[in-house]
């Protein structure tokens, strides 16, 4: 007798593929039935009056802070909205909105299949890559908006991240030029660009008073990005060992994607670096760790701007090479804003100086010369502070009026 063995990883992948195919066939069959009904009876099409007015799509609960100010504003204006989430634990489902209605649409292909036949006048999302991968433009959607969820370059997404959206809500005017450059380079139509500010940072800033600082003890927050250029993956023990030897309180907060793409690396480092002075933070909310930190060490992660702009404290960034080839920024001849501004508002750290990291940290904490430059960068990247939710809601309603 011959036994066929499939390892757990392969089995999980095959299972996901099968589930995705079944879900896709299910929703495609529904779309096919609707088309057949229309051909036979002429009554299967959906009129504009029958479409949902506004649909917000969130692929993960960590984006709730982006959408909440917008939904709050629409709720205050008595405007209904439909919220689709791919996360059962999305905080939306714990809110008590009167008009906003939510639905868990399933993860991965299951959720994308439903979105691909969506009937709505306006769809707002943080997910890039519309019409590039699994998430396709539905013929039943009149207008797709993308909202940037961090004060970062708009070209920081993987290739073609924003190309097929109709409109994009920006956090600062500086993001416009590179989008326009790519539109001309690729021969695609111009998108509507609206400088709205950053709902995500507005949400965090409004809640700062609820979190305590780290007090007089020195606390270092290590908050890297993920991928081969991220400092945990690239440097690992060579950085963590001298950092642990400083005797400071250390908070290590890996990027959420690291738990998926680099789980073995994270598990190995967690096993070696434990103790009273070292804490690993995997909470959805990052504000508690940001508030406690005396200084932060990161790489090219957008969290450096969360920290610098919310607390106006300097940060240290590891001088690691970043491969821009898979990203839209690779097609732009100018260096992205975030890499140009890093040297102005942050403290560089090279691998050869890891052995002196305690002195670098102590010098950085005492530095006050960077504060003015941090404030100037904040004015550039985070416009309309506290008003982003209102600006986005107002623009959506104006667009809705035009569609109607």
From TrEMBL:
GO terms for cellular component: membrane. Keywords: Membrane, Transmembrane, Transmembrane helix. The chain crosses the membrane at residues 12-33. It comes from the Bacteria. GO terms for molecular function: CDP-glycerol glycerophosphotransferase activity. The keyword ATP-binding does not apply. Signal peptide: none annotated. The keyword Transmembrane applies. Pfam families: Glyphos_transf. InterPro entries: Glycerophosphate_synth, TagF_C. This is CDP-glycerol glycerophosphotransferase family protein. It comes from Candidatus Gallitreponema excrementavium.
